[in-house]
Amino acid sequence: MPTHAPLHGIRILEVSALGPAAITLPLIDLGAEVIKVEPPAGDYIREMTWPIVEGVSLMHLHVNRGKRSIVMDLRSEEDVATFKELVQTCDVVVEAMRPGGLARRGVGYADLVAVKPDIVFCTISGYGMTGPYQNLPAHGVAFDTWAGIVSPQVNEDGFAYLPEHASMGIHAGPLFGALGIMAAVLRAKTTGEGSFLEIAQSDAAAAMDWYRSETWKAYERPESEVTGNKSDDYERREPGTAGMIEGVRYQVYEAKDGRYVLFMASEQAFWKNFCEAVGRPELFERWPGSKYADHARGNLELRAELRDIFRTRTAVEWIDCGVDQNFPVAPVNSPKTIAEDPQFQDRFHWYPVEQLGAEQLGSPIKFAGEALPVPSHAPTVGQHTDEVLADLLGWDAARIATSRAKGGLGGPTPGGPTPGGLTPG
């Protein structure tokens, strides 16, 4: 078993506000060291969203777990100089807010590559560094509405509202960013070259939904060149899951216990296995369908038959049957019930409240035969200022006190009232 975590030895200096701080979370889970630089007033993520767990937001507890916090006011020459010293001990600098904030304070990529030529600098923001929206304030849902992932609904009173949905941009953006960071670090370690990465959460949302947007783009070509599939007599369908509304062999059905299952026998072989498993071989004989990608779209007679069949067993019984008889069927869970699912319980573990302040999910990445490092509790503002300066720069108490006397590190009292003036992205 390896003696070190996969990213042991990688050090990241992060200046972040709100959700984009999640960019370093997957790297922390794999063993990277992350130092979060905060203005004296702190990152107000601790007060954002819900739930609030014992006075601190779950968002902060999750996206900033495992990090050490150091207070610096990057408007002061003293802290700018200290920041540059810290950079010389790091592999990566992350700017997780509106791009350009660090450059305006003299610690942008051009400033930092001068003191550490192989530094990897990554800025992650809402709409990125270019385009007409680059300076437009936004929160996470905006990236999903912009990308066309979530559409407004109208209630019975005629008011438009945002429906429940899984956020995409705020989760995909950090993952793309983490991937880019590690690619850049690998190059830096082999070539000595630094990198300037730029990630927009809106871009990430659009990239994750590539199948629908690319389908619409393909449909701009004539039907003689772009068709539907063979099982639909080559008729075009709506892109993605919108084209599955009329599906029959690929559809959700209610089970005996009132729960739903997703039936996915779109391949002919799976459809045959299902019909034999439920003692209805005549269904296959009457509607054998195409070999692949056949949803029996629009076949209301078959849909009624399947509706009645699925009501004869519970959801769990259908899953067991699918495993035994080799046909695809899946539970339809919700964010509230997913933790009860046996597959979830087998694959995930929860960090306990006592450890991280709230029950949190561990990384989905698994290294066979290895246990990933356990992250520490998300920090309070400036919790590790003295510790980090001692560890990375070798400063003693007198040197730290001198810096504070000069107006650095938040002044005489860590976490004092002077605002840092950084702008969230």
Describe the structure.
This protein is an alpha/beta fold and about 425 residues long. It folds into two domains: about 10-210 and about 345-405, 3-Layer(aba) Sandwich (Rossmann fold), CATH 3.40.50; about 245-330, formyl-coa transferase, domain 3 (2-Layer Sandwich), CATH 3.30.1540. About 35% of the residues lie in helices and about 15% in strands. The chain is built from 16 helices and 15 strands. The chain has helices at about 25-30, 60-65, 75-85, 110-115, 140-145, 170-190, 200-210, 210-220, 270-275, 280-285, 300-310, 315-325, 340-345, 355, 385-395, 395-405, and strands spanning about 10-15, 35-40, 50-55, 55, 70, 90-95, 120-125, 155, 160, 195-200, 250-255, 260-265, 330, 350, 360. The strands form five sheets. The protein has a six-stranded parallel β-sheet. The protein has a three-stranded antiparallel β-sheet with strand order 11-12-13, covered by helices on one side. Helix 1 (about 25-30) links the parallel strand 1 and strand 2. Helix 5 crosses helix 7 and helix 6 (about 170-190) crosses helix 7. The longest helix has 23 residues, at about 170-190. The radius of gyration is 26 Å and the shape is elongated.
Number of contiguous helices = 16
Helix content: 25-40%
- Tally the structural domains: 2
Secondary-structure content class: alpha/beta
Average pLDDT value? 94
Q: Would you identify the regions where 5 or more consecutive residues have pLDDT less than 50?
A: 414-425
The span between the termini is 41 Å
